[in-house]
Amino acid sequence: MYSLLRKILFRFPAESAHNFVMSFLSTTGRVLPLARWFTYGGRHRKGVPTELFDLQFPNPVGLAAGLDKNAECYNELSDFGFGFIEVGSLTPLPQKGNPRPRMFRLPQDRALINRMGINNCGVLSAISNFKQRRPRTILCASIAANSTTAAENIGKDYTKAFCMLYDFVDMFTVNISCPNVHIMSDLQDSDTFPDVMDGILESRVVMDVYKPVLVKISSDISTEQLDYILDYCLRNGVDGIVAANTTRSREGLATPQESLSIIGNGGLSGAPLYHRSLSLVRYIHEKTNGRLPIVASGGIMSVEQALEMIDAGASLLELYTGFIYEGPSLVGDIIKALEKRRAERHSEAMPEATPSKAPEPQENEPAEAETEAPDYTEITDIQPQDDPAGTPEEPSATPEK
Questions:
Q1: Which residues neighbour 108 within 8 Å (Cβ) at sequence distance 6 or greater?
Q2: Cis status of the peptide bond prior to 396, with omega within 30 of 0
Q3: What is the mean pLDDT of residues 81-88?
Q4: Could you state, in order of their start, the residue ranges of all structural domains in the chain?
Q5: Which of 35-44, 144-153, 307-316 has the lowest mean pLDDT?
Q6: pTM, whole model, 2 decimals?
Q7: Is residue 351 packed enough to be buried (19+ CB in 10 Å), middle (13-18) or exposed (0-12)?
Q8: Burial of 50: CB neighbours in 10 Å, binned 0-12, 13-18, 19+
Q9: Are 202 and 163 spatial neighbours (Cβ–Cβ below 8 Å)?
Q10: How far is Cα 211 from Cα 170, in angstroms, rounded to an integer?
Q11: CATH class of 2-348
Q12: Cα separation of 340 and 346, whole Å?
C-alpha cells in the first residue's frame, strides 16, 4: 500500500509532498478521527517499554525533528507507532528559512538533501498548538537560535526558547549542528559551545520539574570537538547525545555528479549516513563508558540497522528519511524485532526447571517398604453418626448479600 502512495508522492516536489502529507494528517486528526484510526491506527504498538531520563517510553523508536516542524501533527504521527515525537527545530521568532527549492530526493541513494534553513512558525505558535491539542505522546522539542540573531546573543536565543517551551514538552534537544544555517557553523567549538549550554542548564536549576536536555551533534564533527562536548556533558549534567545531524559530504553517492551540482548545498540524510552515525554511536558509548545515553539518528533504513544501533550502545532510535522511503511499516517492524529479542533474552535468562528425584537409598540401609494404597471401597457404606445436637438446617437457596 505504501509503495503505491510513495510513487504518487514522489511525482511531486519533495517539499510540496511534505506539506500535503502534514496537511492531510492535521485534517484527519481534527475532522475525521475515526477514518484516521482505520487508516493507520492499527499500527500503533507499545510492546517494548523503555525507561530513560525518568520517562516511560512506550517503545524506543522515535520520529526525528524536521518532519513536524511547527508542532502541528505530533498526536497523529504518534499513531504510526512512534514511542516519542521530536518537533521543530523551533526558534524564538518565526522565520521563513532559505529560498525554494530547498529539499531534494536522491532515490538511487535512498537519501534526501535539504537546505530548509530551520523554517518554522516560532515558539509561540507551537505553544498555542500544545494548548489546543493536549499531547498524548512523549514530546521532545528541538530548539535553535534565529538565523538573524547577532553572534553575541545566540546563547540568549536558545535559553529563551528553552524557558518558553519548558512547561509544554517532556524533553529537549539543543540543535547546534544544522549545516544550513550560517550562525551554527561554529557552535560545536570549545569557545562557543558553553555560551549556548550554560544559560540553558542554569535556567533548568530553578525549574520545579527536572526535564532532560540532549545535544544534537553533526555527523561531520571532528574528534577534538566531540571529545570536548562529551567532557562538558558529563561534567555539567547534560542528559544525552543525539547522533547525528545531516552531513555536507557527498562521498560515495550513486547519484550522478551533474545532478548533485544542480542541487547544490544542503545536508544529506538517509542511507549514506548510516555507517558514519553508527561509528559515532560506538565511539560515544565507549568514550563515556556508557554513562551518557545516546539517541541514534541518521540513516536507519531497516530493522537490521536499528538492532545494530542498539548493540552499538544506543538507548533510543529516531527515524526520518527511513520513514519517508520505507513507510510506517518500518516502525512496526523494528518494534516487533525488539519485542522478539527481548522475549528471547528473557527466556534465556530463566533457569530451566529440572524434575526433582527421590533420594536413592544409601548402601547398607534398607529401602523403605512400598505402602499399599488403601482400598476405599471398604468404607463406602459408612453411615453418618447421629447428631446429638439435632439435625442441621438445610442451606438457604438465597445468595448472601
A1: 253, 254, 255
A2: no
A3: 96
A4: 2-348
A5: 35-44
A6: 0.85
A7: exposed
A8: middle
A9: no
A10: 6
A11: alpha beta
A12: 10
Lowest mean pLDDT among 78-87, 180-189, 344-353: 344-353
Report pLDDT digits (tens) over 374-393. Answer: 443 443 343 444 444 444 44
- Report the C-alpha gap between 1 and 333 in whole angstroms: 16
Cell of residue 13, nine digits = 516536489
Q: Residue 146 carries which side chain, given as an amino acid letter?
A: N
Grid cell, residue 84, equals: 516519542
Q: How far is CA 352 from CA 238, 341, 348, 355, in A?
A: 43, 19, 9, 10
Tens digit of pLDDT for each residue in 10-48?
999 999 999 999 998 888 776 655 454 544 544 445 578
Strands 138-143 and 294-297: unpaired
Beta-strand runs (E) in 115-239: 138-143, 171-175, 213-217
Give dist(CA 71, CA 130) in Å, integer: 8
Q: How far is the C-alpha of 349 from the C-alpha of 138, rounded, in Å?
A: 31
**What whole-number distance in Å separates Cα of residue 44 and Cα of residue 163?**
32
pLDDT band of residue 363 (cuts 50, 70, 90) is: low
**pLDDT tens by residue, 299-310:** 999 999 999 999
Q: What is the CA radius of gyration of the chain?
A: 30
- The one-letter code for the residue type at 121 is C
Query: What is the C-alpha to C-alpha distance for residues 233 and 107, in angstroms, rounded to an integer?
Result: 37
- Whether the CB-CB separation of 328 and 308 falls below 8 Å is answered with no
Q: Does the structure show a pLDDT above 70 at 330?
A: yes
d(CA 226, CA 280) in angstroms, rounded, equals 9
Please name the residue that has the C-alpha cell 534537544.
Answer: 173
C-alpha cell at 301: 533504513
